[in-house]
Structure formats: C-alpha cells, structure tokens
Amino acid sequence: MLRVHNTMTRTKEPFEPAGDPVTMYVCGPTVYNYIHIGNGRADVVFDVIRRYLSYSGHRVRFVKNITDVDDRIIERSAAEGRPFSAVGQSYTEAYLEDQRALNVTPPDFAPKASEHIPEMISMIETLIENGHAYASGGDVYFDIRASDDYCKLSGHSVDELRAGARVEPDERKRDPLDFALWKASKEGEPWWDSPWGRGRPGWHIECSAMSTAYLGDTIDIHGGGHDLIFPHHENEIQQAEKATGTVPFVRYWLHNGWLTIDQEKMSKSLGNTVTVRDLLQHYHPMILRFFLLNTHYRKPLDFNHQALDEATEGYLRIFNAYHQARRVLGLLDAARWPFDGDDDLVDAVEALDAAFDAAMDDDFNTREAIAAVFEFTRSLNERIESLSRHGLASAMTAYELIDNVLGILAPVPHDEAALEGRALEREAARARRDFRASDAIRDSLAAEGVMLQDAKGYTRIVLTRLPPTEAR
Ligand SMILES: [Zn+2]
C-alpha cells in the first residue's frame, strides 16, 4: 500500500487516487537560462514518482508546464539582445536536451504559458466576476481579503506576512498581499490583448489555468520544489479553487527538499549556481541521476564533489554487477564460462522485489530502494560462479524491472567485443608467460577506466569510471 507525505496535512497518507488515470501536475522550468541542479533534482524525483505509479499498475496523466512568459525572460532578452520569443525557444530546447540526458520521461503534455493566454484570461474574468479579483490601472490582482483560507498549505500567518510585506510606492493593490494575475505591459515588453488592455499574465495564474484545462478541477498529485510552497502553490490554490468553486484543487501536495552546494543555498548573488549542463561535462548523466535519487526526495541534499565521487563508486557497483551477469550469460553461450552452477537466485530476487516495493511504497523512499539493490548486488557478486543460466537471467531481469522505475542503467560505453578480445589476448600472453605483453594490455585498458581482474578460471572486467557523455 503506497503512502505519500502530503504537504497540506503534514502527514503520510494512504494514496487513493480519485479515479483512473491518476492525474499529476508538476511546475516546470522558467526558460530564461539553463536549468540548475536543483531543478534537475525536481525533474528526476517527479519522474521516478510518476514511473513508480505506472510500475504499480496505475495509468498516469502527467503535465509539466513550460513558463515562457516571465520578467526574467524579458530581462534576458534585453541582456542578450535577442527577441523575447527566441530566448524562450532556445532555453526550452536546452531544457529538453537536459531532460533527455537525465533520462526523464517526457510528460504527456508540456503546455507553454504563451500558448494558453486565453485560458488564463478566462480564469481571471471568472475571479473578477465572483469577487475574488479586481482590475486596477491595467493590472488585475487577486483579492486576498476576500479569502478566508489563504496560507492553508504553507501554514504562514496572514497577519505576519502582511506586517512584513514591502509596499511599493506605485502600489495599485488594495492589500500588500494581493498578487498580480495580469500586468499591464510596459513599453517594449511582450503583450497580449485582454479586457484590461495590453498586458501579460502574472506567473502563478498559468499553473491553475493549465492544470484545470488539462486535468480537471481536482487533480491527484501536484509536485514541485519546496521553495514553491509559498507563494506559488499557495496562490495556485486560491486561483483555482475560487475560480472553479471546487475544493480541493489538489488531493496530494508533494514537495522535494532543498539542494545546497557545499552546504550553501544556491543563489545568483553567491555565484554558486551549478547548471546540469556544466555537470554533464564532468559526470555521466546516469551517475548524476543516481546521486539525486540516493537521498529521500523530501530530505535536503548537499551537492559537493566528494558526494559525487561517492555516488560514482556506488553507482559503478550496481553497473558492474548488472553487466557482469549479462556478460557471463554471453560467455555461457560461447562455452567460455568455466562454471556450471545450479543456484537460481530465487531467494535474492524475491528479497529484492519485496524490499524495493516496501521502500517505494513508503513515500517513494528511493534511498532505501537503492539500498535493496546494493544488497542484491552483494549476493549476486558472491554467487556469480555458482549460478545457473536461469539464475543469471533472473538477475538481469530483476535489475531491468527495477530500472523501469529508477532509470539509471547505462550501456557499457566501450566496444564490448573488443574488450573481450583484449581480455583473451591477455590470458594468452599470461599462459605463455609473456608478462610484458599481458601487463601492457592491462595498463592500457586501466588508462581507459577498464580494470581486468584475475579470477579463478576467468578474467573479470570491471569499469572504474564512466566517462561523461560526448558533447551534445
Ligand atoms: Zn506552478
């Protein structure tokens, strides 16, 4: 039985979707720059959550929007001297490349804000009609004083927020907490026609409008980073619930934890923003993905190079064991595997399946799920020489089944037939006691990150590193 932590109730609840399919919305990127590793964490976390729901037998309808109308894109367009739409287009493409690299399954729908302005205008009109929003000098604001449940998600005190709110000199709002649904466009800014004149939507309205347009008035899961709880998700709730009259807008709110860099919050002012793109120059994307999943999604995660090195080591243990099972099956077929065991590994496979499901059912605990994979890897490595063909095949199947959820397995980046050939050459050189030749082969492969280990009757091939992918 799957249980999920709901930010709204602050408890772990049994997951009971309203119907079929499960409906899920995650806030996507604002395309004004390359995505950073914190965005990458949310992408990977919600990808795995979605994959696990499918793995557990649910159909899932998954929407992740693209925010291509935003102040930061306007600023970027001025800074780069490119049209607003060209900036959005190029960073959208870069984002999609990063998603592919991280093995994130594309959403069923990836609506762009710029293509859903009519839905937003219509939702804003409804909010004005039913007394929850007002037009003011070409802008439209949500009227916080007309709501009695603002901050029900974040638990903030409205009075304290109001006391601490900054009041701008050219204020068109009735209350400092009122937020913009629509903004009049300034000279040179992109604009759309609206009942309130030329302007553009505020940020929050797009998610309420697109979520209800694609998934209905109430959805099962809404996800995003912890930093989105206030004000973004709080405002999404107000807009959607006051416009549709349906409560709740979202049945389960899921938020992933902070990502820090060397224990510091990532911020532009500290200059410590790390983009996914930069990291992929140094790390294989599946190692990054593994690193992001090797912590429970709600926990804070510190990014530093030592942690990445540790992740690399852990990742390669799983990677090597999977490929070892695959290779040994090939050697068996070629009558080059010297063992003839009858261990079918049933107990270890059953233990893995049970532990994996239990971990994932416990609020998608990927860290525990990966621990189960390590445990399985240990028993596989210990027993590889006594396994039957069936045992080897079921080990591979076990890894592959789980990888439908984790999505971390990568192919061997080398020409495997050539590697086998080199290993055989080295065995032959050793047999004729030509240790110079055998050492030369071992050393040249070691320089490529391939270690040849002498085991009883065969040569084990172990990768000691996985190079970052080629420039894309
Ligand atoms: Zn959103």
Describe the protein's topology.
Elements lengths: L2 E4 L4 E4 L7 E5 L10 H19 L4 E5 L6 H10 L3 H18 L15 H13 L3 E4 L2 E4 L15 H7 L15 E5 L14 E3 L3 H11 L3 E7 L3 H16 L5 E7 L2 E3 L2 E2 L10 H4 L5 H9 L7 E3 L1 H29 L12 H16 L4 H18 L5 H18 L9 H16 L3 H13 L2 E6 L2 E6 L9
Bound molecules: zinc ion (ZN).
Notes on the structure:
This protein is an alpha/beta fold and 472 residues long. The protein folds into three domains: 3-256, HUPs (Rossmann fold); 306-406, Anticodon-binding domain of a subclass of class I aminoacyl-tRNA synthetases (Four Helix Bundle (Hemerythrin (Met), subunit A), Up-down Bundle); 416-463, no CATH class. The protein is 46% helix and 14% strand. It is built from 15 helices and 15 strands. It has helices at 37-55, 71-80, 84-101, 117-129, 158-164, 205-215, 229-244, 276-279, 285-293, 305-333, 346-361, 366-383, 389-406, 416-431, 435-447; strands at 3-6, 11-14, 22-26, 60-64, 133-136, 139-142, 180-184, 199-201, 219-225, 250-256, 259-261, 264-265, 301-303, 450-455, 458-463. It has a four-stranded parallel β-sheet with strand order 4-3-9-10. It has a four-stranded antiparallel β-sheet with strand order 5-6-7-8, with helices on one face. The chain has a three-stranded mixed β-sheet with strand order 12-11-13. α1 links the parallel β3 and β4 (60-64). α9 (285-293) packs across α10 (305-333), α10 (305-333) runs antiparallel to α13 (389-406) and α14 runs antiparallel to α15 (435-447). The longest helix has 29 residues, at 305-333. It is elongated and about 90 Å long. The two termini are 41 Å apart. The mean pLDDT is 95. It binds zinc ion. Zinc ion binds at residues 27, 207, 232, 236.
